[in-house]
């Protein structure tokens, strides 16, 4: 019975992986530039199924009427949460990503990463971004500023960029926890 249960779980996991790939294929960025102002649900930012228990994404209207992307998450010691954007050989080659970010309850920390087409990880060379409480700040991250996560010192060839990952790493910064929310606006890949 236990074996059957494991097989069932494995089948479900494979099915979820397949659904994720289909969704990613449908939302992947193919033309540059793209710009999302979150006036509608039409954007290419996914909350991967492996992190579904941590939170969710929704469009939220601010008091001034502006719509933003609200990422509700749960800060738990030792755990991250992630958002995912697929890059499907975009034309022309993307040069960078720019977005506004704020936190609503307490300051958050976000690590921006790229994965290339061979699955190698690259991180923004100037470190993690601090999302300020109640204050939308603009960050502009040229892909040329991403360095190999293996600390080899190599810099990314933007033509190989395949996945853009936003990691909420607030749990690794200070003694904070619980319900958390990050807001994004004017998200551009250019
Ligand atoms: Ca907006």
Structure report:
With about 190 residues, this protein is mostly beta strands. The protein has one domain: Jelly Rolls (Sandwich), CATH 2.60.120.260. About 15% of the residues lie in helices and about 45% in strands. The protein has one helix at about 1-25, and strands spanning about 30, 35, 55-60, 65-75, 80-90, 95-105, 110-115, 120-125, 130, 135-140, 145-150, 160-170, 180-190. The strands form 2 sheets. Strands 1, 5, 7, 8, 9, 11 and 12 form a 7-stranded mixed beta sheet that branches. Strands 2, 3, 4, 6, 10 and 13 form a 6-stranded antiparallel beta sheet that branches. The protein binds calcium ion. Calcium ion (CA) binds near residues 37, 66, 67, 68 and 185.
Which labels suit this protein?
13 strands, Jelly Rolls, single chain, 190 residues, mainly beta
What is the H/E order? Answer: HEEEEEEEEEEEEE
Low-confidence stretches: none
The overall pLDDT, averaged over residues, is: 94
Helix/strand structural class: mainly beta
Classified by CATH, the class is: Mainly Beta
> What percent of residues adopt helix (DSSP H or I)?
10-25%
**Ends apart, CA distance between termini:** 52 Å
CATH H level: which superfamily?
A: Galactose-binding domain-like
User: What share of residues are in beta strands?
Assistant: 35-45%
Brief summary:
This protein has one helix at residues 2-27, and strands at 29-31, 34-36, 56-61, 67-75, 81-91, 96-103, 108-116, 121-124, 129-131, 137-142, 146-148, 161-168, 178-189. It has 190 residues and is mainly beta. Strands 1, 5, 7, 8, 9, 11 and 12 form a 7-stranded mixed β-sheet that branches. Strands 2, 3, 4, 6, 10 and 13 form a 6-stranded antiparallel β-sheet that branches.
């Amino acid at each position: 019975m236990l074996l059957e249960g494991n097989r069932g779980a494995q089948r479900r996991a494979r099915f979820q992986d397949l659904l994720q790939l289909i969704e990613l294929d449908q939302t992947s960025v193919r033309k540059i530039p793209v710009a999302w102002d979150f006036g509608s649900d039409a954007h290419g930012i996914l909350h991967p199924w492996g992190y579904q228990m941590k939170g969710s994404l929704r469009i939220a209207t601010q008091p001034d009427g502006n719509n933003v992307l609200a990422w509700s998450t749960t800060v738990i010691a030792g755990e991250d949460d992630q958002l995912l954007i697929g890059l499907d050989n975009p034309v022309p080659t993307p040069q960078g990503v720019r977005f506004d970010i704020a936190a609503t309850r307490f300051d958050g920390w976000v690590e921006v990463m790229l994965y290339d087409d061979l699955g190698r990880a690259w991180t923004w060379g100037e470190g993690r971004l601090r999302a300020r409480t109640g204050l939308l700040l603009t960050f502009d991250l040229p892909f040329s500023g991403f360095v190999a996560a293996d600390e080899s010192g190599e810099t990314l060839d933007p033509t190989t960029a395949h996945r853009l990952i936003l990691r909420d790493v607030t749990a690794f910064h200070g003694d904070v926890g619980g319900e958390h929310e990050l807001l994004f606006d004017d998200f551009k890949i250019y």
